């Protein structure tokens, strides 16, 4: 019966995490606003979010416990985006007005005409939403703008790069995340210390922008934030996910590789004065996408790190051919079996400190020596 209690505990904890965002309305329902962490430069910032309508909690439902969580999960499944809501966004003395799309999303591009403080990296964007027949809704969200000393942009895949996923093993992934002990969670060994080292740089004060990309939909945003917090991974500034937008006109979500390439182009244009590192895995299309990026930006990409997630000889040969295609550039494609190899290469290029390298080595060794 031990397995039953483990899975019952898993179901309860998973339901609680999925339901958590719904508790902000105290069960009253109505129109809600969920902004996502923003990012930008001292010339422009981007803020994305969603406005949606959700049902109220029934009076017979208790205020806490599994029944409440189950009701909140149900409310979350059936909430609907609110189209054409007016969204006013202000950051410092800069302001922009726009409306939500048919799925309730807004994606604001706000030019910065009045300078933001340069001595802080995180700025507050104030948001006011006006929806017909509802009182104005006020909220705020953090926006990340790299400090002047930031010298490197890091763009990383999430799925099978930062965390174990496996398209056919989502339940196992969730089980490892919410039930098993911290050293057995879904993050690859050494990932937290590696990304902390990249964030801080050789000086350990760089506060570099790290941008994460996932194939998943925006609906899993909170769960990914929980995963990053549990595993001590720098939170971003932003998690880029896909709006699947499945409909009769478009029955399939946009291809993941097209989504990723567009985001990389957008980030390289935004942070046009920074070199870049790309991190991905060998299991999907990352090596091919990243190779095309290097060819398009031959002077911008310092390194491509590909985490080897299987031992398929044909796949390794294909990646070797891609590596050969980049031999004439200043970018090296590194196929790495673990975080230590990535950290060693980054240290050799002056991109992380010796303390950062040592932290990755310690964490990987601790994982291998931990009881199973």
How would you describe this protein?
Pfam families: APP1_cat. This is Phosphatidate phosphatase APP1 catalytic domain-containing protein. InterPro entries: APP1_cat, Mg2+_PAP. Residues 153-308 form the Phosphatidate phosphatase APP1 catalytic domain. There is one protein chain. The chain is α/β, with parallel strands linked by helices. Helices cover 34% and strands 26% of the residues. It has helices at 2-19, 66-78, 170-178, 191-200, 221-230, 256-270, 286-296, 313-325, 339-348, 354-369, and strands spanning 30-40, 44-54, 80-81, 86-91, 94-99, 105-111, 122-130, 137-144, 153-157, 210-217, 238-242, 276-281, 301-307, 332-336. Strands 1, 2, 3, 4, 5, 6, 7 and 8 form an eight-stranded mixed β-sheet that branches. Strand 1 and strand 2 form a beta hairpin. The longest helix has 18 residues, at 2-19. The two termini are 21 Å apart.
């Amino acid at each position: 019966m031990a397995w039953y209690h483990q899975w019952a505990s898993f179901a309860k904890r998973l339901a609680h995490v999925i339901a958590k965002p719904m508790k902000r309305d105290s069960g009253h329902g109505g129109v809600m606003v969920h902004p996502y962490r923003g990012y930008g430069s001292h010339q422009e910032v981007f803020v994305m979010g969603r406005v949606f309508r959700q049902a109220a909690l029934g009076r017979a439902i208790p205020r806490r416990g599994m029944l409440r969580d189950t009701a909140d999960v149900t409310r979350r499944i059936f909430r609907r985006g609110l189209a054409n809501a007016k969204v006013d966004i202000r950051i410092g003395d800069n302001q922009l007005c726009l409306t939500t799309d048919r799925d309730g999303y807004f994606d604001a591009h706000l030019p910065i005409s009045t300078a933001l403080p340069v001595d802080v990296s995180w700025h507050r964007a104030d948001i006011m939403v006006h929806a017909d027949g509802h009182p104005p809704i006020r909220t705020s969200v953090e926006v990340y703008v790299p400090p002047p000393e930031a010298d490197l942009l890091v763009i990383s895949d999430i799925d099978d790069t930062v965390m174990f996923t496996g398209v056919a093993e989502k339940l196992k992934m969730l089980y490892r995340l919410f039930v098993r002990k911290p050293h057995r969670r879904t993050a690859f060994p050494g990932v937290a210390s590696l990304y902390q080292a990249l964030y801080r740089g050789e000086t350990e004060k760089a506060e570099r922008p790290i941008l994460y990309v996932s194939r998943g939909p925006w609906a899993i945003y909170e769960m990914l934030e929980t995963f990053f917090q549990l595993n001590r991974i720098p939170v971003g500034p932003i998690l880029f996910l896909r709006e699947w937008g499945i409909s009769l006109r478009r029955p399939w979500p946009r291809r993941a590789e097209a989504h990723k390439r567009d985001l990389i182009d957008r980030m390289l244009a935004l942070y046009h004065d920074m070199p870049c590192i790309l991190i991905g895995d060998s299991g999907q299309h990352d090596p091919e996408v990243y190779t095309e990026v290097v060819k398009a930006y031959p002077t911008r990409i310092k390194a491509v790190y590909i985490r080897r997630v299987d031992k398929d000889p044909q796949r390794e040969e294909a990646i070797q051919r891609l590596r050969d295609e980049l031999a004439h550039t200043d970018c090296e494609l590194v196929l790495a079996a673990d975080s230590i190899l990535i950290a060693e290469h980054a240290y050799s290029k002056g991109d992380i400190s010796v303390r950062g390298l040592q932290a990755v080595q310690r964490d990987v060794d601790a994982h291998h020596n931990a009881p199973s």
